[in-house]
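In this section we walk through a basic example: taking a raw amino acid sequence and producing a predicted 3D structure, encoded as discrete structure tokens. The instruction is simple. Fold the sequence below.
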Amino acid sequence: MSENAQKAYEAMLSTVGDDAVTGEWFELTQERINDFADTTLDHQFIHIDPERAAQTPFGGTVAHGFLTLSMLVHLSTTIPVETPRMEGILMGVNYGMNKVRFINPVPAGSKIRATAQAVDVVLKDNAVDLTRKMTVEIEGQEKPALIAEWIGRTVFA
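The resulting token sequence is shown next.
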């Protein structure tokens, strides 16, 4: 175990249980939804056909759940984080998710934002795994689009 990893672990551990921090709004456009459909080959009409989708309970096209989930990468960069300087970082990687729930569809053209709250930190040799509860909100809606437990791994020298 590296000393850098140990120090980072202790710093991250001190954030567990802090209040959630919120990022900036981001518009999820129909164009982005269409691009995601093309990339993933998921052309289900509820995502790309406004006329047919208008006849569903959604009332219009909605973003793919996995598009909303993948937007966590961008949304998380807008969340202000006050972390102490960490020495010896070799890399950070997306380690995965513990749990993901798609709660509310995101209508095309909606604005979304994420909140993050540290819920667990684990020291593994020269790496620290930080699990954050991520909630994606939809502007003007009470229920969030999704809630996920996202694990980020930071590897130290």
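Looking at the output, two observations stand out. The longest strand covers residues 110-124. The two ends are 9 Å apart (CA to CA). In the next section we compare this with other chains.
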